[in-house]
Amino acid sequence: MIKIIVDCFGGDHSPQANVQGALAALVQFPDLHLILSGDEEAIKAQLAGNEYDASRIDILHAPQVIGCDERPTDVIRLKRESSMIKAIRLLRDDDSVAAMVSTGSTGALVAAALTRIGRLRGIIRPAFCPILPTMSGGIVGVCDSGANVEVTADHLRQFAIMSSLYMENVYGIYKPRVALLNVGKEPEKGDELRQTAYRLLGETPEINFVGNMESRDLLSGNYDVVVADGFSGNVLVKSTEGAALELLGKLKKDIYSKFIYKVGAALMAKMFKEEKEFMNYQNYGGSVLLGTSKVIVKGHGSSKAVSVQKCIEQAYKMQLSELGAKTEEVICRYEHYEL
Amino acid sequence: MIKIIVDCFGGDHSPQANVQGALAALVQFPDLHLILSGDEEAIKAQLAGNEYDASRIDILHAPQVIGCDERPTDVIRLKRESSMIKAIRLLRDDDSVAAMVSTGSTGALVAAALTRIGRLRGIIRPAFCPILPTMSGGIVGVCDSGANVEVTADHLRQFAIMSSLYMENVYGIYKPRVALLNVGKEPEKGDELRQTAYRLLGETPEINFVGNMESRDLLSGNYDVVVADGFSGNVLVKSTEGAALELLGKLKKDIYSKFIYKVGAALMAKMFKEEKEFMNYQNYGGSVLLGTSKVIVKGHGSSKAVSVQKCIEQAYKMQLSELGAKTEEVICRYEHYEL
Predict the structure, then answer these.
(1) What domains, with CATH codes, occur in chain B?
(2) Cβ contacts of B230 on chain A, cutoff 8 Å
(3) Partners of B57 in the beta sheet?
(4) What is the pTM (predicted TM-score) of this model?
(5) Between the CA of residue A328 and those of A119, A126, A325, B165, what are the distances in Å?
(6) A residues 164-183 closer than 8 Å to B (CB)
(7) Which residues pair with A239 in a beta bridge?
(8) Which of A50, A313, B117, B315 has its CA 20 to 30 A from that of A281?
């Protein structure tokens, strides 16, 4: 049995999306047990009317609510009875609880994870690894995408090891092709950080390093995971998502500008719907935080039920595949830690 | 009369695109005089059969050719008789020559510009500023997009001043809205560099600083120019272009997958053509190098004639508006240089 806590508050569609996503995940994985954290009455109201195995769900009552604009440090200090912080505490204290999923504040979650949960042995900096769809029908991960705005080459090598193991163990990608985000393909491109990281990644036999990647090639399908500092990784992910969404939005607007276009679009309705689904990040789950000693998955603030379900699936597979132990084993070869 | 050198070699469609673009620019601007650098016979062969005012074109014969993989330092040292390096030398030595346009190697051009042409008074680092179309029908500049992978907050302030004046003087944008590329909107977001730059930009009355911009909002139309270090600026521009092109490519492929989609697309042919033109960077000219003591415009390596013509237009307007002198005037208020 795998036990996962779902923070049911803090998202745009909370608690409804979180509770419905949780119920769907229970159907998907028969050996899953869930703990739903948040206001007990509100969660019970969402559960009411659904058919589910009540013995596989517990509620962790947490009355406090975290506001949008609260600073991460204030959340940890002042919102000890909130759904997120109570969940983090239970994750820390209860050995039987394997993982946590949250759609709440990213900053607060990272701060709480680092101070309350801690890191895998040997890991210097946990890092986010969101997943994007490629144009060849596959997926690509980006690590880090925002947890660490300043990094060293050693951090980048750890991101490469962690994310490569993640793509292999959770998505079943054989020898994931790992690239380094850079301003050109040649080894000597970029600043000293990139040049040193290029060398280190090439000297790491546990990963399949395929060289530098220019940002325009992210969706090409030629890479399985891209390693970056959290600043440029964040720019990479958000500008790619932003451009695709803006362009789809423009197409939609232009279609409505002429009758003949509307007719054409009607014939293509199924295709446009598929494109929209394809680009919809809700279908790809959340951004996992790699490197913490227990599994933590951060869903988009705008997550709907399907996205929450995917986040639970990611957490479940990370735990099932023993990703943490596998990561420690490789990392400790480089960081001179005793296992 | 404004005299501009066009480097006619080094692009994918050189010298044909460069010469045809030059001829179109001559028609567009009656007081323009052009010097075409490169192999004289090849340029004459391209000119043959066209009607033009021969008194407004000179040829600067340059027999050497620069290969794709040559290192910038080798180009400067060993290719002194190439079209790019001869053009740079003439630009430096001839006071009557105002500007240069090239579609050749970016690295070689930047290296040659910095070592042979020098900077405007007070400018610490010249920076690139390419232009992208926004979804609201306008344009947005990104400065720097790759000339400087490591920068300080002072550099970022200079980029902001230079690019704001550029958008105002060349594109006629009144009080351009200047944003700082960051991982979130709040002033305290990002690393120390971003936090310091945020403060400096806010203390610069010559620019209309509107705060941090997240990369997903680049095409929103809410900003006229975005300031970034060359690494993340490069990631921003290339991932935005890359995502848009990949998505259009996928749409095209999917249209051909079913007969009914082809019928629909046929009705929408005009619209799709317009979208393609809209996203076509050829229509937006090149990436100007701001901060050099003479005007330098770098066109895409894949530039066709229309793009070369736009690059010449950009160079012409930069010179006509006396952008260099205006930039020096503002910069020297901050850098304690005597004008």
Answers:
(1) 1-123+291-321 (3.40.718.10), 127-283 (3.40.718.10)
(2) 183
(3) B34
(4) 0.92
(5) 10, 12, 5, 52
(6) 181, 183
(7) none
(8) A50
